[in-house]
Amino acid sequence: MMSRQQNKKLTTRETQILELLGQGLDTRHIAAILDIAYYTVRKHRSNILIKLQLNTAAQLACVAVQTALFPPSAPTSASASKLINNNTESASRIRGPP
């Protein structure tokens, strides 16, 4: 069952942070660029993970790169899941069977 917060779209600030993550910037650099506290950026990252139903920083990085490449619309939970599944399938093909 999804909570209300998980069902919401990303805020403007969360989308900005996601795009900056996709450009390869770390949390400290993002905080400096946006002139906000380091821990504020961490909280936004945490909120993004929850809203997009992601579990790891690697998943967040995948979505962030996708968002940086195609910024007009923020990813939804469904598009984030689709992107992660596609990348997992691609990685399996590269590695081959276990």
Termini separation comes to 33 Å
By DSSP (H or I, 4+ residues per run), the number of helices equals: 6
Helix content: over 70%
Structural class: mainly alpha
Q: The CATH topology, please?
A: Arc Repressor Mutant, subunit A
CATH class: Mainly Alpha
| Architecture per CATH nomenclature, i.e. the level-2 architecture | Orthogonal Bundle
**Fourth CATH level, the homologous superfamily:** Winged helix-like DNA-binding domain superfamily/Winged helix DNA-binding domain
* Unreliably modeled segments: 1-7
What is the helix/strand order?
A: HHHHHH
The beta-strand count equals 0
- Rg over CA atoms: 14 Å
Beta strand %: under 5%
Shape: globular
Give the biggest sheet: none
Q: What is the total domain count?
A: 1
Please state the average pLDDT score: 77
Write the layout of secondary structure elements.
Blueprint: H1 4-7, H2 12-22, H3 27-34, H4 38-51, H5 57-69, H6 77-95
Helix pairs in contact: 2-4, 2-5, 3-4, 5-6
GO molecular function: DNA binding
Keywords: DNA-binding, Transcription, Transcription regulation
Region (Disordered): 72-98
